[in-house]
Design brief:
Layout: H1 21-44, H2 75-83, H3 87-99, H4 106-119, H5 126-131, H6 164-171, H7 177-189, H8 193-205, H9 212-225, H10 229-245, H11 252-262, H12 266-282, H13 289-299, H14 310-318, H15 341-352, H16 355-365, H17 376-393, H18 396-406, H19 415-427, H20 434-444, H21 450-461, H22 467-485, H23 498-510, H24 514-528, H25 535-547, H26 551-563, H27 569-579
Helix pairs in contact: 2-3, 2-4, 4-6, 4-7, 7-8, 7-9, 8-9, 9-10, 9-11, 11-12, 11-13, 13-14, 15-16, 15-17, 17-18, 17-19, 19-21, 21-22, 21-23, 22-23, 23-24, 23-25, 24-26, 25-26, 26-27
Length: about 575
Amino acid sequence: QDPTAAHYMFQDDPFLMPRNAANSRLFSLSKESGRNAAKYIIKQFPQYFDKTFAEPNIPCLMPETLTPQIEGLSEEALKERIHLRRVKDSVDLFDQLIQAGTPVSLETTNSLLDLLCFYGDGESTPEKEDLEEPGVNASEQKAPKREFQRGSQPSGSRWRENNNAERIFKIMPEKNAHSYCTMIRGMVKHGASAKAYDMYIGLLNERHKADVHTFNALITAVPYLKERFLERWELAKVFLNHMAQQEVQPNLLTFNALLKTLRRCGGVGRSTALLVIKEMEALDIEPSLATYDHLLFILYRGADLCPSDIISEVLDDVGKRSFTPQDPDDGMDFNISDNLLCLSLGEKCCDLKDIKLAYRLNKVMEKGDNWKFLDMDRLNAYWSKFFSLLCMMEQIDVVLKWYKEMSSSLFYPTPKNILDLLQALDAANHLEVIPSVWEDMKQLGFNRRQDLLEELLSLMSRERHPDEIQLAFAKCAEEIKAVHEQTRREQSLLEWTGSALGHVALLFSRAGRTQEAWYVNMMEHFQQINRIPTDQVMDEFLNCAKQTNCPDEAIKLVKLAASLGLPSSQRLKNRTEKEFELSEKQK
């Protein structure tokens, strides 16, 4: 792997090679937005995309037929519109069939309910279609198929009172268990948990049985039905008992839904979570990534209150296999990937300051296709946390090796990562690497970050180094000075601080660049911004003037100290008289 290469999604356009994490996010979202725009154009103007001839003809590569082919009032036309996910057209055609007195079969009506409950009575969009596949039967819930998901349910998508789904359900002459189950799942999905519970009671009164997917939805809705933790757990147990009575076999999603509910049950969740895991083992159901994520969320309460070895045990179990998506919470959903196992474990490793645990986690993350559970943003966040822990706990040679291999190819360092790296270099006394870090800062677009510039200048000017290093530091100082003097139309002027001025003056002085140290920094800017140079700055400059035999600069320094009323002015005057050969005029 080329450590300098960008992510593969940017390789087809060198102009879009991102410089930092912000650019990476912007460019990746732009590409996804372009795909969605293309889907919208094809859907809105299908007449311009009807040329399907090709040699050889490969059906799976041809555009989908999105225009209804069956005209007139018929059940077949309704089925076709349901299949094409035309929500409004399907409802309108159904109403026309009912008004015309044409009976619609229970199976077709249920398919229409599936469509309405899946989309929340709203029109389908590319984002919703990418998120999940409703199919003809909404109870056949599937995990998302795509490797990276950008679409998510809009926050404003809520179950409206007396919407089309409720209206059609009420006028159905015959209802079966599928009808009730579809309504329950649609109500839970779109935030009407209380209505879903009432619908479940109606299902029981009609002596129907719910399927496993409906029970999963109801268990997920428990936190919205009860306020007290114990009441939530009791209601969840009621649903589990009903599953046993109706002989419904639980699946992985059932236990994940239960653990997701226990996340919001406080101490009750902590006391029962491991029992749920044991029940999964008894039924020979393998956990998914979401299972471990829920478990860690419930049991992990900070570095000081961490249950003994719980994270290590989870890593032992996770490390034995490679995962495939089985639950929407396995990291495929953009909203849920914040709590993805690898990311939450990475945060906990940082809390515990356990580098060995972090290495084990990284090995698990790189196994098989596990990395695909993290989208680009979360992948960058994971590597950022991992690198911060390296800077805190590892030897500097190891840190630099990881930095060289990771930077730009695996992740884009954040300002905090650069600050952590500078502090690690300082702790290991490897300050000679700072010029290369400065080059990376420029590449990443961090050359105007005041906190990073202050830290960089402070480290370079704190001690005197060999001449070769001092020259490299002076070059960095010159470029930092140029950054402060840039006046681009779209950027505000970067203001000098007293400490930054002093550091730059010191670096110029130690490199023997007396004229620049005096003219560019001290005389001009210290007086302009009403800042006082430190005694160290004054002494270093005087030493530089002595080495280069510039008595005129030394005299200017004494005058500056006197004009600023510095206590050190008399001492500087005495040093100048003693260490320089002055003419009568200069005296």
